[in-house]
Amino acid sequence: MKRILLSTVCAVVLGLSAASLQPTQAQDKGSVEVLHWWTSGGEAAAVSVLKQDMESKGVAWLDMPVAGGAGEAAMTALRARVTSGNPPTAAQLLGMSLRAWAEEGFLGDLSEVAEPEGWDTVIPEPLQAFAKYDGHYVAAPVNIHRPNWLWSNAKIFQENGLTPPKTWDEFNQVAEALQAKGIQPLAHGGQNWQDTTVFDDVVLGIGGPEFYQKAIIEADPEALGSDTMVKVFDQMRKIRGFVDPNFSGRDWNLATAMVLNGEAAMQLMGDWAKGEIIAAGKTPGVDILCTPAPGTEGSFLFNTDFFAMFDVGEERRPAQLIMASAAMSPSFQETFNLAKGSIPARTDVPGDKFDECGKQSMADIKAAQEKGTLMGSLAHGHAQPPAVQGAMFDVVTNHFNSDQSSEEAAKALVEAVAAAQ
Amino acid sequence: MAATERMAGRRRLANALPLFVLSPSLLMVTIGVYGFMLFSVILSFTSSKMFPRFVFTGFDQYERLFTNPRWGVAVQNIFIFGGLYIVFTTILGLGLAILIDQRIRAEGAFRTIFLYPMALSFIVTGVIWQWILNPGLGLERLVQSWGWESFSFKWLVDPQMAIYTVVIAGVWQVAGFVMALFLAGLRGINTEILSAARMDGAPTHKIYTRIIIPALRPVFLTAFVVEAHLAIKSYDLVVALTKGGPGFATELPSTFMYTTTFTRNEMGLGAASATVMLMTLAAIIIPYLYSELRHERRG
Asked: Which residues, at least 6 apart from A353, have a Cβ–Cβ distance to it below 8 Å?
């Protein structure tokens, strides 16, 4: 008796689950598995936009978020997946690591959608250099972040009759004026990538775009050891004096909070800081002013997230192509970037829904594109492969946290880069 | 005749059975531990970057390793950290064990209190001490708010001193465990010898220095090996406490190995650093195992 009951229950359950599966199977176009590290509130919301879009097209979305360490944990997970011969459909990658994966030959070919949709005409060329490998697209760029921003507390500046500095000399004057009044000039977190974000700004601001191109993008030993680089390190030493003594190891968002709360006047940080500003109920461009980092007006450093598409075989390819196309659609790029604080990777998306800082970013990138001053950021993995980038991080952060002289730091930079290449 | 044969068969089976039962784990350990150790050593002689590549370059990676300033700091730190960590945990552990051994009241409660830090993970210890030592949040601010305005304790954010904060947190975590080791040793000492010494009129401090501490020799050895390998393996403590900073002032060989291999795509260099760590550990552990095993055979 018991057994009959049991088998009936089983049959009913099986029947039910089969029935519930049927409708989805009818329109099933496969599934995509996406590895990413967008796990914080705003970012997760941005990703779910794409997820819903895919599901409306009948493609199931298998989310594989790996939190922690600005993608470090995700990269380790990705390597394990790929070496075991089971790559995800797509993975969030930054420029230089995207190139490394492409060189290893693990990425697929997106020409089938990229050519008819004319990606070449809408994606800025410096981004194409990363998204394409061997002449064809291997990844879809979804956003453009600008790391070379200066965020200033409008109230502090107004009360003290100051304006956000446009050159590094002005920056030093403003910072000294604030310090004289007992106001902390700069909020900063002592982590190697934050030190290098500032370093990028100083190299670009003091040396100009050609010098940045030579020293940072081409890692030319002559430029790295030049007098200009010594001046850059001199300025880094000055900046060290404008930071509070308790900055070591501080996370970037806590530094942003200091500017928001009026505990510090300025922060040099990328436009992801907008997320914190909005979350605190302030308006970017009004309460917290956004200006290009001192001396970097007219240039645009970028930091782009790509969906790298792995070589997954014929069976999973159609769904992958649908995803690539959806990720590049203007409507997705608009909603995604409104949620994320960045600007669209395609230049033909209208900017009227974006805030002041976003609009300025979109105007500045067009100008920079024409002048050829749209360049990858070292601190955010768009200038040098990880080994060289890491070597530069070491020198910059070591100089910033010690009393090493600028000449020694420039010399160390040349040596470290040569050893890592 | 048939009976003895059956007996012999059964005995043979009985002899083979343990080996048979052990073989899966033996196989796993051979491949999963020793096999991969060998693999890492082989990788350290290649130019591997993001993935293993068997292009052999001899001792190149070792040369690069020993000219790398970050590795230099890491090695210097492991000597400072390891040395102080071992000395302080041993002294504190022994001291606590001797105090607890005085037949005090509520001994169980004290033992638990001192052992409790061991139940926390190093990550938790690291975070707690990060808050305590942070000049703007913890100890310094507390003492200043009590009125001692000039009090300053900035080791955590001082590149010269930051490594000592790792020692403080590490010692706090493990001292209780070492105490338990010594306590077990103290309880194992033959009380008759102690009584005899007292009868002969030996003063208490002499009993400790001449009888008890020499009798604890094997415990010292065990404590040393446990502490030494914990010191060399230390990773999570640094990650949670200082993230290797300020700059790379608190980098340890283990954190160096992880970042080079997994975030800087320098697998060959990372493998070389791992091999150097393995050799160092082997130099400590093998003589210990050797002396222990020889002891056993004699006994």
From this structure: A334, A338
* Structural domains of chain B, ranges and CATH numbers in brackets: 70-298 (1.10.3720.10)
Burial class (CB in 10 A: 0-12, 13-18, 19+), B208: middle
DSSP 8-state code for residue A124 = -
For chain A, the domains span: 30-145+303-360, 149-302+377-420
Report the residue from B68, B134, B249 with minimal CB separation from A401.
B249
CB contact under 8 A, B263 and A389: no
User: How many Cβ atoms are within 10 Å of A288's Cβ, its own excluded?
Assistant: 25
Phi, psi of A310 (to 5 degrees): -80, 160
- pLDDT, mean of residues A27-55: 83
Instruction: Give the pLDDT of residue A21.
Output: 42
**Residues A61-104 pLDDT 10s:** 998 888 765 677 888 889 888 988 889 999 999 999 899 999 98
Question: Residue A182: phi, psi to the nearest 5?
Answer: 80, 20
Cβ pair A246:B265 closer than 8 A: no
Q: Residue B64 and residue B61: Cα distance in Å, rounded?
A: 5
A404 touches chain B (CB under 8 A): no
CA-CA-CA-CA dihedral for A281, A285, A289, A293, to nearest 10: 120
DSSP B99-167: HHTTT-TTHHHHHHHHHHHHHS-HHHHHHHHHHHH-TTTSHHHHHHHTT-TT----GGG-TTTHHHHHH
DSSP conformational letter for A191: S
Checking ipTM against 0.90, whether it exceeds it is no
Are A166 and A297 contacting, i.e. CB atoms less than 8 angstroms apart? yes
In angstroms and rounded to an integer, the radius of gyration of the C-alpha atoms of chain A is 24
Distance CA A343, CA A369 (A): 15
Helices (H), A135-191: 154-159, 168-180
The answer, yes or no, to whether residue A15 has pLDDT greater than 60, is no
Residue of chain B with shortest Cα separation from A417: B68
Q: What secondary structure does DSSP assign to A224-246, as a single string?
A: HTSHHHHHHHHHHHHHHHTB-TT
Please state the separation of Cα B14 from the chain's center in Å: 39
Per-residue pLDDT for B93 more than 70? yes
Of B167, B19, B259, B222, the C-alpha closest to A73 is B259
What CATH code is assigned to A30-145+303-360?
Answer: 3.40.190.10
Q: Which residues in chain B touch residue A416, judged by CB atoms under 8 angstroms apart?
A: 69
β-bridge mates for residue A303, sequence order: A145
CB < 8 Å to A100, chain B: 49-50, 265
pLDDT at B297: 60
Best probe of the B interface among A199, A244, A394, by most B CBs < 10 A, is A394
CB pairs under 8 A between A and B: 83
Contact with chain B for residue A307, Cβ under 8 A: no
Q: Is the per-residue pLDDT at B199 higher than 50?
A: yes
Share of chain A above pLDDT 90, in %: 65
Query: What CATH architecture does domain A149-302+377-420 belong to?
Result: 3-Layer(aba) Sandwich (3.40)
SS (H, E, C) A351-404: CCCCCHHHHHHHHHHHHHHHHCCEEECCCCCCCCCHHHHHHHHHHHHHHHCCCC
> Which residue in A has a C-alpha nearest to residue B67's C-alpha?
A419
Statement: residue A393 has pLDDT above 50: yes
A246 in contact with chain B, both atoms CB, cutoff 8 A: yes
